[in-house]
Amino acid sequence: MHPSESLNNKQVALGIHPLRFLLWLMIISITMMFAAFTSAYIVRRGEGGWLEFDLPSGLLFNSAVIVLSSAAMQLAWFSARRDELRRVQWAMLATFALGVLFLIGQWQVWEELVQSKIFFGGADSNPAGSFVYVLTGVHGFHLITGLVFLLVVLLKSLRFQVHSRQMMAMTNGAIYWHFLGGLWLYLYLFLLLNH
Amino acid sequence: MGSAPTSAPHIQHHVAGDHHDEHHDEGNFLTKYVFSTDHKMIAKQFLISGIAWAFIGATLSTLFRIQLGWPDAQLTWLEPLLGRWVEGGKLNPEFYLALVTMHGTIMVFFVLTAGLSGTFSNFLIPLQIGARDMASGFMNMLSFWFFFLAGIVMFVSLFLETGPAAAGWTIYPPLSALPQAIPGSGAGQTLWLVSMALFIVSQLLGGVNYITTVINLRTAGMSMAKLPLTIWSFFLTAILGLLSFPVLFSAALLLIFDRSFGTSFFLSDIYIGGEALNHVGGSPILFQHLFWFLGHPEVYIVIMPAMGIVSEVMATNARKPIFGYRAMIGSLIGISLLSFVVWAHHMFVTGMNPFLGSVFMFLTLIIAVPSAVKTFNWLATLWRGNIRFTTAMMFAIGFVSLFVSGGLTGIILGNAALDIQMHNTYFVVAHFHLVMGSSAFFGMFAGVYHWFPKMFGRMMDEKLGYVHFWLTILAAYLVFLPMHYVGIAGFPRRYYAYTAYETFNQFADLNTFISIAAIFAFFAQFVFLFNFVYSIFRGRRATENPWNSNTLEWTTPVEPGHGNWPGAIPAVYRWPYDYSKPGAEQDFIPQHIPYSQTVSSNLPYEREME
After folding, report:
1. Where exactly are the transmembrane stretches of this chain (chain A) (predicted)?
2. Which long-range contacts (CB under 8 A, 24 or more apart) does B523-526 make?
3. How far apart are the first and last CA of chain B?
4. Which of B105, B124, B181, B201 lies in the 20 to 30 Å Cα band around B132?
5. Total structural domains in chain B?
6. Given an 8 Å threshold on Cβ–Cβ distance, is B262 in contact with A14?
């Protein structure tokens, strides 16, 4: 048999674990959703009748919180690679807590908006305000799914099931969490530029 | 990093084949037939639900064709079925619109998206690429049950007191947003949106699985350039779904907010009974842009799996390699790319900037190029082939005929100037029913007749299949050819009764004729239903490879068990279309036969690989 016919050395797949690949595809579909929202925002804004208002100041604080949360996640990931399992647990706990803090902060932002009479719906609402609620709300929903993911990784790390030879869940969690953080920074920047 | 793919244990237990594992294979009724994670069972679940939905969708169309064909008839005899929707022997006009809406929704999404992709992507992807199962069997199961739940919600909406959704399958606001405008936009539309949200989740769960499986789980030697065209078409279809369904989800979400939370994304300055509504500053055109960004790729999601199935069935039964294998892949990719940049050709009459219209017109007409490449390749595959007219082959040829007939009018409608004349007439209805409706159905029938032996271990009856084919293709043309004619004459869509207009009265006979043909087509499908159900239990026993086909699924046992191959997965050495190769012993060489075993037929460049 000719050597080219022995197929052992052929690598047909991408070398990515199927679960990792599934995650990337889901990230693509979430991206498409927000691409639709933000392009709808631009089209709708271009048509006029748009209420201009100052973004709540809480958004900046929340952005800082989610960046810190991503940093903690990265710390947990590096620690897992180096088998420093205690630090993995602390860093995961910090990531999770900062994620919850971000969500509470977004809730405060909504309250701030209501106080300045920017409503989601009803007679006094304007699409300009409604869009802010939709963008933060749908992002918040995905962040909750991210927190569930973090919780799974956290529980695994508390049972010492996350270490340098078992990184699948940890890395997937980190990818998803960084994506959600990056998505928020995009949305924040988008809102800043389009106001 | 990470654990081995989930399929690995199956390899071991089949090799070991001890008693305990065999028992595990059978499972109980619930895990084998209901909450199954086996791709073959999930495919059958999709197929049977798809068939059920197709009959519901066709029943709805029969009802409104009765109204259109005999507008003055007394319909009291329908009261047992429709109850209050028949008032004094007349069909309720708003219920007529609900029938049209639900027919469109059911056929496009539940039958031709879930029924077609769900069945054949699930069944064929692992079998044809040489995998034990999908990348995630659990997500695959979820995909079916989300679809099932979506179906329940949609079905329940048919029985609401205010009727199901009635704003068309495209659910344009403001009509779909205001219950004051039409009763179907009340609870019916709410259930429609809930159902579609569940449906989108189902499609995404299924789609990411199809893509991952094709990318990651191909057997040794199965490079992308050795994949059967079915797999290429399912793969690209799944990518289209992954990119476009989230956008529909966004649009539906904003519509839900407009309907139930008082936002004004799509609604603006509406007066009802002299009263101004609260909505200020929305844009209904924005909804159309978001909707058609899904809506146009959606028609390719419907037709591309049919194209793949037809290519495979046609090459097998013409006993010839598919003509232009790489051109076929290239044209599929071309169609996929173009599908995302033509959506506004559905919106030429929305007051669009004529320059923008001409850009979309230009891009639309380019689609004729890859479509023509495919058509000519199919014809060239048939040319001087050693054709076996199996039922599947008849449907595959019928597909090409319908696709050409319907595609030609697409060139007319793609022209902005002509579309403005034809828009909202029956010409449009005739166009899309031929090119994506009937064609996709023919592709699906070809697939069912062709892969039935592998699905159920038995053959479908060929004679009944012939009867089904001839009745169906005859009826399809008898319905849709006259429809072009009334469309050119200006007969408008979505009109419940046209007898009030002197101009359209002259088409009463033609409409009656179309209705008779449509009802005839509906009854012809019972031949298929009987053949399908009867053959599952009483059909002739199939062999492993009844069509002498090359692809890997035919190397599995007659009824493949969980894990598909009892032993090792075969490796792949050649492309799937080595039919009638000069010098070969038989007129087919399956993909898993190495070149060293086919010395007599190897071409000069293949000698190195012996």
Report:
1. 21-43, 55-78, 90-110, 130-155, 175-193
2. B524/B468, B524/B471, B524/B472, B524/B475, B525/B54, B525/B55, B525/B58, B525/B468, B525/B472
3. 36
4. B201
5. 1
6. no
The verdict on a CB contact (< 8 Å) between B217 and A138 is no
Nearest Cα of chain B lies from the Cα of A194 at a distance, in angstroms, of 17
Is B548 within the bounds of a domain? yes
Residue A70 tokens read as: 């991503």
CATH code for position B45: 1.20.210.10
Determine the Cα–Cα distance for residues B238 and B563; give it in Å rounded to an integer. Answer: 23
Lowest mean pLDDT among A121-130, B400-409, B436-445: A121-130
Q: Which amino acid is at B36?
A: S
Is the Cβ pair A123, B278 closer than 8 Å? yes
| Amino acid, res. B445 | F
Domain with A114, as residue range(s), is 17-42+69-193
Q: What is the pLDDT of residue B26?
A: 56
Contact B2 A168 (CB under 8 A): yes
3-class DSSP assignment, residue B560: coil
Say if residues B173 and B268 touch (Cβ distance below 8 Å): no
- From chain B, the residues in CB contact with A13 under 8 A are 215-218
Can you give the pLDDT at residue B6? Answer: 39
Residue A61 falls within a domain, yes or no? no
Of B216, B264, B609, the CB nearest to A5: B609
**Total structural domains within chain A:** 1
Residues 6+ apart with CB under 8 A from A147: A96, A99, A100, A103
Q: Is there a contact between B212 and A12 if contact means CB atoms under 8 Å apart? A: no
Whole-number Å distance between alpha carbons of B569 and B313 = 24
Residue found by looking up tokens 């996350």 in the block: A162
Q: Cα–Cα distance between B446 and B442 in angstroms, integer? A: 6
How many Å apart are CA A168 and CA B503, to the nearest integer? Answer: 69
Helix (H) or strand (E) holding B90: strand B90-91
Residue A64 lies in a domain: no
Which residue segment(s) compose the domain that B33 sits in? 8-269+276-572
Average pLDDT (B110-123) is 96
B585 within a domain of the structure (yes/no): no
Select the residue from A8, A23, A32, A187 to test the B interface by mutation, using most B Cβ atoms within 10 A.
A32
- Mutation target among A29, A33, A114, A165 for the B interface, most CBs of B within 10 A: A29
- Kindly list the residues from chain B whose CB atom is less than 8 angstroms away from the CB atom of residue A17: 1-2, 5, 216
Domain assignment present for A128:
yes
Contact between A68 and A84 under an 8 Å Cβ cutoff? The reply is: no
Looking at the complex, report in whole angstroms how far the Cα of residue A76 sits from the nearest Cα belonging to chain B. 17
Q: Residue B579 domain-assigned?
A: no
B425: left (phi over 0), alpha (psi -120 to 50) or beta: beta
Question: Is A164 part of any domain?
Answer: yes
**ipTM attached to this prediction:** 0.90
Amino acid, res. B586: Q
Residue A13: pLDDT band (50, 70, 90) is low
Q: Which residues contact B462 (CB under 8 A, 6 or more apart)?
A: B390, B391
Angle at B491 between CA B488 and CA B496, to 5 degrees: 155
Query: How much of chain B exceeds pLDDT 90, in percent?
Result: 81
Contact A22 B282 (CB under 8 A): no
pLDDT band at B130 (very low <50, low <70, confident <90, very high): very high
By the 8 A CB rule, do B539 and B459 touch? yes
CATH code: domain of residue A184? 1.20.120.80
